[in-house]
Amino acid sequence: MNSENRSTGSDAAQMTLDSIGDGVLSIDIDGNVTYLNPAAASMTGWSCQAALGRSHLDVLRIIDSESREQAVNPLALAILHNRTATLGANSVLIRRDGKETAIEDTAAPIRDAHGVLCGAVIVFHDVSASRARFQETLHKAQHDALTGLPNRLLLMERLTQAMSFARRRGALLALLYLDVDRFKQINDSLGHAIGDQLLCSMARRMTGCVRDSDTVSRHGGDEFVVLLPEVAHRDDAIVCAQNIFLTLRRPYPIENLVLRVSVSIGIGVYPTDGADVEAVLRHADRAMSNAKLRGGAQHQSVNPPPSRCVAEFLV
């Protein structure tokens, strides 16, 4: 191929790289930027002129969106291992002005005509919209549509993790199983719209009663489960149940009404009341059912210690 043909091919390649929507950035063997296409310039905030000769770590700043730690740059990996490398799943590009963009990429080594490694190139694109859609879909799958609380699926995931942690540490965790007393009467007499507003108000109050590390979830209908992943004693769960019980009994002004409700709460503690997730959940559910049979408006544990009567909070 003569020099004119090589020049024409080079120009065509340059035009192609300058026209594509993905960002393209290349570096030499020392890690300094040798090329930046317009898309990469826009996403990084660095012009080609300003970026040339600078370390790729200055121009292509990438962090993990969850840990906020600097991510391993795939360009460096491509050179180090002389093979294709990709970013981690939660990678975010920090633009020169601080704006963050979720990206996906592929980096590959560059070899000269003799096969000698001489640099690397990365192709990356903005995945903020698709990642946001995925997070929205995931959130909907794991949260109750009415109250926004974690649903049973997310609760079971967190409960499994918390139980594994408690097992390793020899620690306790507790579950509170709540049911709204005579909620069907509210729905039947006042309508489902009022009932829904009441459930949302109760959800907010329960969330305000617990720690950030705890989980308040809705199991559907008028049933809620609270996960307390770290408790020192069973009494801690009883104190939390009492606090929730009293908080939920305060009046609820809804539209032109003032509603008052009570709840029945069952308590289950791992490992005392069960050796696995389902066993502890069943224990708490059974304790709640026993509270219902006793007339509601109370909380209790199944088979409480002989020296302690079942705590009741009747009004």
Task: From the structure above, extract its key features.
42% helix, 2 domains, Beta-Lactamase, 6-stranded antiparallel sheet, 26% strand, Alpha-Beta Plaits, 5-stranded mixed sheet, alpha+beta, 315 residues, 11 helices, disordered C terminus
Could you please describe the fold and organization of this structure?
With 315 residues, the protein is of the alpha+beta class. The chain folds into two domains: 3-132, PAS domain (Beta-Lactamase), CATH 3.30.450.20; 143-301, Reverse transcriptase/Diguanylate cyclase domain (Alpha-Beta Plaits). Helix content is 42%, strand content 26%. The chain has helices at 3-19, 38-44, 48-51, 56-59, 74-81, 128-142, 152-169, 183-190, 192-209, 234-248, 277-293, and strands at 23-28, 33-36, 61-64, 91-94, 100-111, 117-126, 172-180, 215-220, 223-231, 252-254, 257-259, 263-270, 298-301. It has a six-stranded antiparallel sheet with strand order 2-1-6-5-4-3. Strands 8-9-7-12-13 form a five-stranded mixed sheet, with helices on both faces. Strands 10-11 form a two-stranded antiparallel ribbon. A hairpin with a 5-residue loop joins strand 4 (91-94) and strand 5 (100-111). Helix 8 packs antiparallel against helix 9 and helix 9 packs across helix 10 (234-248). It is elongated. Residues 296-315 have low confidence and may be disordered.
